[in-house]
């Protein structure tokens, strides 16, 4: 999710709303991030055109899943789109987040994808997982209903920390799963190559992709990420539960609606798209859930 005042949420949302103090401000940051990203998507589905005024659009380098290139679900059969047509419209199969098959009937996604624009647990009666649909404008692949969801009970919406959830599908998919990094495994050394995939915003202006995309982003050090997100309105980096990736100069990143999708290191699931200040901005890397920190809990939640 974006922080308030960042791209997916539509410009300087926080400053436009005026400053709120301390806790409230931080709380609003996260809630507004959910609101901004998901409302923008609803707008994209129902009403074509820009979702915010041009003068509030973020400045900076081009932002494309930001800086990336097309990918396909044949090569990456374990990536799925989370869909609710009732909430987000049918133009892009109702896509609003992504997830990864970690077992034939289990999808790992971001906890914040399970919340609505008011920061409440979302009630999406038509929540589905879409597998094998590179282009969301088509009917390729399969749609499977979500039978139940498990949101990490220690997820903190205000801080957007410990951001993971496991969905159980109504029926299993036999298309292949992505292995996770091991519990406590340190795969996150600075400059380690990583790849993020999704159908999210390609410009930071609400231009949601119909076609799956991918981009390579190096892992950043904890120190770099702490400097980028020292706390306050722009968010707080927690190295126990998060990891950052991106170029110092920006230009490559995940963005709104990529949330919940996979960050791969060496062909394994190492991160979950979680939040950031805008998309692809210099010195503002994307923030991901640190999968190794939760691998044991995730496996338990998924009954693996
Ligand atoms: C979002 O709103 C979001 N640049 C996801 C990732 C990033 C920013 C926003 C990282 O879903």
Name some characteristics of this structure.
304 residues; six-stranded antiparallel β-barrel; 5 helices; 13 strands; 17% helix
Q: How much is the average pLDDT?
A: 84
Heteromolecules bound: 4-(aminomethyl)benzoic acid
Overall 3D shape: globular
Terminal Cα span: 28 Å
Number of strands: 13
State the helical fraction. 10-25%
Strand content: 15-25%
Explained architecture:
- The protein has 304 residues and is an alpha+beta fold.
- It is 17% helix and 24% strand.
- The strands form two sheets. It has a seven-stranded antiparallel β-sheet. A six-stranded antiparallel barrel has the order 2-3-4-7-6-5.
- The chain is globular.
- Mean pLDDT is 84; it is low at 3-36 and 43-64.
- Bound molecules: 4-(aminomethyl)benzoic acid.
Summarize the structure.
By secondary structure, the chain is α+β, with helices and mostly antiparallel strands. The chain is built from five helices and 13 strands.
Describe the secondary-structure layout.
Layout: H1 13-17, H2 22-46, E1 69-70, E2 79-83, H3 85-88, E3 95-103, E4 106-109, E5 128-131, E6 142-151, E7 165-169, E8 193-198, E9 213-218, H4 222-228, E10 242-245, E11 262-265, E12 268-275, E13 286-290, H5 291-301
Antiparallel strand pairs: 1-9, 2-3, 2-5, 3-4, 4-7, 5-6, 6-7, 8-9, 8-11, 10-13, 11-12, 12-13
């Amino acid at each position: 999710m974006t922080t308030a005042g960042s791209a997916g949420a539509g410009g300087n949302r926080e400053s436009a709303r005026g400053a709120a103090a301390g806790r409230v401000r931080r709380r609003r940051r996260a809630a507004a991030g959910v609101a901004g990203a998901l409302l923008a998507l609803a707008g994209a589905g129902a009403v074509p055109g820009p979702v915010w005024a041009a003068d509030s659009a973020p400045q900076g380098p081009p932002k494309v899943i930001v800086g990336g290139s097309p990918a396909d679900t044949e090569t990456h059969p374990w990536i799925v789109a989370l869909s609710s047509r009732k909430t987000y419209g049918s133009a892009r199969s109702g896509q609003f987040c992504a997830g990864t098959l970690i077992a034939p009937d289990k999808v790992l996604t971001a906890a914040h994808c399970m919340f609505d624009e008011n920061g409440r647990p979302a009630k999406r009666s038509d929540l589905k997982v879409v597998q094998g649909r590179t282009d969301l404008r088509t009917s390729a692949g399969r749609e499977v209903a979500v039978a139940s969801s498990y949101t990490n009970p220690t997820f903190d919406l205000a801080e957007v920390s410990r951001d993971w959830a496991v969905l159980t599908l109504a029926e299993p998919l036999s298309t292949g799963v992505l292995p996770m990094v091991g519990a406590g495994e340190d795969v996150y050394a600075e400059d380690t190559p990583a790849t993020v995939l999704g159908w999210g915003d390609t410009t930071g202006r609400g231009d949601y992709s119909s076609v799956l995309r991918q981009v390579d982003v190096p892992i950043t050090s904890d120190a770099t990420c702490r400097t980028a997100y020292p706390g306050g309105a722009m968010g707080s980096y927690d190295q126990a539960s998060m990891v950052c990736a991106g170029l110092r100069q920006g230009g490559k990143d995940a963005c709104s609606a990529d949330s919940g999708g996979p960050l791969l290191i060496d062909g394994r699931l190492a991160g979950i798209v979680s939040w950031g200040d805008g998309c692809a901005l210099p010195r503002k890397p994307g923030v991901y859930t640190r999968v190794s920190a939760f691998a044991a809990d995730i496996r338990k939640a998924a009954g693996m």
